[in-house]
Amino acid sequence: MKVLLVHAHPEQTSMTCHLVGIAIEVLKAQGHGIMQSDLYGMNWKAVFDGRDFPSRVNQDRLSFIDESGHAFANGCQTPDVEQEQRKILAADAVILLFPLWWFGMPAIMKGWVDRVWAFGLAYGYEGAGNAYRYGEGGFAGKRALLAVCVGGPAQDYSARGINGPLEQLLFPITHGTLFFPGMQVLPTFAVYGSGRLDAEGAADAAAAWRRRLERLFEDQPIAFRPQNGGDYPDHHVLADHIATDRTGLMAHIAD
Ligand SMILES: Cc1cc2nc3c(=O)[nH]c(=O)nc-3n(C[C@H](O)[C@H](O)[C@H](O)COP(=O)(O)O)c2cc1C
Question: Which residues surround ligand 1 with Cβ inside 6 Å?
Fold first, then answer.
């Protein structure tokens, strides 16, 4: 299998980079091929702007969606974006590794998504509007996994913890960014208190990470409900008889 590791941390001694190193070692030992995107190391352009469209359709008004669709369809995206899309399309699994910054991914990684998730590929797939989304689309058949270094303690992210549960905080990434274009998303791997781990804590985190990597192609993905699986009869809203006791984000995960 081929695995793409995308990470966002400039410091080699960080826990994030440590997890990247372990992933390379474990996945190679399993015989998988590795591709990497070290976003700081690549000096990745984080900001999605007019420079992303060297051959504009409309010079008068910058419509990101229109220009993204045109650039993707006509082979006039920037080379850095094309290269990342090639890597994802070649990958059987994509692992995003990052420190939790303000309850999300660092801007450089958000900018990677903004720029690489082109219209016609990750959304508006096949020119069919929203016909293919949530479980189907340009990245269908690939697995995705987040490995997140969390500064705060696990209690703060527990079911009634003050920050809110991590799986809900990361829902816009797992569901909105990865499942939307069709990836099967595995439960997030998190290292809590990652800035202040002692040697034992770091060793425990490394061992847990190894176990997750070894099961990358075996673990059950999060049971997000696919748009076209019948739970959303009008492709917008859950049917009345589904998850009757639930509203909000968690209603979109099957029991
Ligand atoms: C800009 C910034 C924002 C942060 N936001 C959060 C946060 O929302 N929640 C949290 O638990 N820790 C937060 N932290 C702490 C980081 O998650 C922590 O420093 C990091 O996981 C340490 O691991 P590293 O060695 O890989 O950087 C933040 C740190 C920075 C610098």
Answer: 9, 14-16, 99-103, 149-152, 194-195
